[in-house]
Amino acid sequence: MYRCCSNRAVGAALSFVVLSLFASRGAVADDLCGGVGPPRPHPYTAISSNAQKTSTTLQGIFFTSDYDNGSLVSVTSAGTNTFNCSILTEDSNEGLGTAVYNFRFKMTGVASKTITLNITHTQNPRPFISFDGLTFRRMTSTEAPNTSKVVLTFTAAQNFGEVAFYDPLGYAEIHNRVNQMAVSRIGATTEVIGQSYQGRDMWMVTVTDPAVPATNKKRVWMHARAHSGEVTASWAMLGFLNQITEDSALGRRLRKNCIITVVPTENVDGVYLGLTRWSAQGMDPERQWDKPTPINEVQNLKNKVDLFMASANPIKVALNLHSTVSQFNDSFFFKHLQPSVTANFETIQQNYIDALNAATTYFDNLAPQTSQLNATIFIESYFWNNWQENVMAMTHEGHYYYRTGTTTYNTGADYFEVGKGMAAALVQYLNLPADSEVSDWQMY
Ligand SMILES: [Zn+2]
Q1: pTM: predicted TM-score of the whole model, two decimal places
Q2: pLDDT digits (tens, 9 = 90+) for 219-230
Q3: SS3 of 93, please?
Q4: 272 C-alpha to center of ligand 1: Å?
Q5: How far apart are the CA of 156 and the centre of ligand 1, in A?
Q6: Alpha-carbon distance 159 to 179, whole Å?
Q7: Distance 108 CA to ligand 1 centre (A)
Q8: Peptide linkage before 339 cis (omega within 30 of 0)
């Protein structure tokens, strides 16, 4: 694995860069992930400057974002135990605008202190905090009194704190969890499908029952985290993987009747770099499917999609996992409508949405979204242009606010359950043959 150079050249001091959401939906009409502002003129802080990987000691506290998924441009003192924290505004190299909301960093030397961090978190009123770097929780209203600062009190025993925009999962954290499941659970094999622009391995997990012949098995495809900061996608992917490798009647039923391929992380460099959206090249991995020579990350996926579509088990269901800013009552799919697709395809998409709604209480389809499918640039465009109604392909968007139907802030665990539901929904959607142990899925 190529370890990106650790020069600490902090790009232009982006003091207090707080570019709130300009999400000009016109620019990204059918991609509501958001968090994108208008393009900025050159010179700007190129992603390649690694400006968001920094370390400094102030007032006896060591601040660092120089690790996997860490992201913070600078910290400056603003009074006793008070610090201004600036987060990265990353510029697209395609003129698609700036993306800014993600951050993650560690602090050591905070025992018995109450510290104030002036940091913008407009897109998530209650960021996450950890006192051991392993388990994270939502901040309380006292800890996050508004969207421009957090106030953290550490006990004498708490000399460490880690702050993150949302329940974080970095490159290694995701792959460790995936490997753990692949090794300890059932029916999973992993392979490297290629390298990213910066040379990181991109993995794919295949789950099926090898004892059952592949004939008639339905292939299901899932990829997550095309956009680097959209971490709810990773939690949903882990829940999905957990369900399809489960030692249960449902797990067995899915493995007997399906070949399920999961790419845990598409934008591996962006995740490692702690970016909000773009790839290490400042490109949008979501918008490359019409390019003759797309960026590595997309080419690696495309190679597999083309291979599977030419095989005896072509993809029947393709799930593309994202996160969105702004407040929604529920996570949602982008259901594509006529005239960009057929009336029958609207029904096909709705059948999967209804199956998920029936499969879990963590999704109630309370915030349905529709759009016209872009003619060329998305993976869904690619599936439609080449295979039309044969592939039920949709994007799912998680959000950073409340648990479905409640006013309790959601966490990664909520999306883990949504992901489990996405797997369970395949039974109804694909009408998988029942066997003696069928009763399990009816529990959902
Ligand atoms: Zn996205």
Answers
A1: 0.90
A2: 999 999 999 999
A3: coil
A4: 16
A5: 40
A6: 31
A7: 32
A8: yes
